[in-house]
Amino acid sequence: ATPTAVMVATGVGANNGVLIKGGDALERAQKIKHVVFDKTGTLTQGKATVTTAKVFSGMDRGEFLTLVASAEASSEHPLAKAILEYARHFHFLDEPNATKDGQSNRMESNFFGWLLDVSDFTAVPGRGVHCFIDGKQILVGNRKLLTENQVAIPSHVEKFVVELEESARTGILVAYDNNLIGVLGVADPLKREAAVVVEGLMKIGVNPIMVTGDNWRTAQAVAKEVGITDVRAEVMPAGKADVIHSFQKGGSVVAMVGDGINDSPALAAADVGMAIGAGTDIAIEAADYVLMRNNLEDVITAIDLSRKTFTRIR
Ligand code: ADP
Ligand code: MG
């Protein structure tokens, strides 16, 4: 392709909200063999919502939600945000004599006023959070977080978590003072176009893969919904780049599509890194392409544009 053709293609991309950082990236995209998608915020909407909160101890529901939300209050994780929102809503609705006006006053003056003081807050990547409330340790996260802290998961709780995961939800386990006190189920719906894009990639000879830090069962349920058979789950934040390298063996051209801080090493490791425009700045910096419309169809647009620019029609 001539420099003019590259310039024209870059302009066409920009007009469609596909920002391409340089002619090399534009050229590499025509040869993409594998596209590795991050799950949360890339294939899914990244709008986690608590759908279930089950208390397994004798504890009052409001008290349970207060403990969990307080523990998560210092976390930046989307799961933490979902939990805080749910607990806030519960307390808001739970206010016995609240009139419409009373509720809005409460929201303004005491939005998160019901949160408890915590000490020694720690966020454990790929696991969850822990801290102390009233001198007792609280753990909020996945099975690994609990078992690594010697908290046993009773079989009826395990069964409940498995059911959540089989319906594509993430189970968040909560232990207080070394006892499992409850479980939350969080759902994050797929983007509307996700399944069509996966199918479209396969039609043009590109292999779709999903990578996530989430557990195997949830990952597989989501992958099934979106039509991806090759899943890499329970990948630690640092491990996503290794997944990219494993597909690059034999010289295959690999693209990564992601939105999070966690994804930036993989975006940099990929031959073609594509960041979701709504993603974090670090991901956008690490990528070769930025998909400004936040629409996964633009992954196909990007490959098409490169193929049309660099493939001679005979
Ligand atoms: P993802 O690739 O889905 O962004 P992360 O590495 O951020 O994954 O998290 C992996 C898993 O660790 C989550 O699915 C969840 O089970 C657990 N986890 C991480 N942070 C939190 C948190 N703040 N609260 C509860 N669970 C968490
Ligand atoms: Mg993500």
Mind explaining what this structure looks like?
- It comes from Fraxinus pennsylvanica.
- Belongs to the cation transport ATPase (P-type) (TC 3.A.3) family. Type IB subfamily.
- It is found in: Membrane.
- This is HMA domain-containing protein.
- With 314 residues, the protein is α/β, with parallel strands linked by helices.
- It folds into 2 domains: 3-45 and 190-310, 3-Layer(aba) Sandwich (Rossmann fold), CATH 3.40.50; 49-187, Calcium-transporting ATPase, cytoplasmic domain N.
- The chain is 44% helix and 23% strand.
- The protein has 14 helices and 13 strands.
- The chain has helices spanning 3-15, 23-28, 39-43, 61-72, 78-94, 100-109, 143-148, 155-166, 194-203, 216-226, 240-248, 264-269, 281-286, 297-310; strands at 18-20, 32-38, 49-55, 119-124, 128-133, 136-141, 170-176, 179-187, 207-211, 230-232, 253-258, 272-276, 289-291.
- The strands form 2 sheets. It has a 7-stranded mixed sheet with strand order 1-13-12-11-2-9-10, with helices on both faces. Strands 3-8-7-6-5-4 form a 6-stranded antiparallel sheet.
- Helix 1 (3-15) packs antiparallel against helix 14 and helix 8 (155-166) packs parallel to helix 10 (216-226).
- The longest helix has 17 residues, at 78-94.
- The protein is elongated, with a radius of gyration of 22 Å.
- Residues 104-109 have low confidence and may be disordered.
- Residues 38, 40-42, 258-260, 263 line the site of magnesium ion.
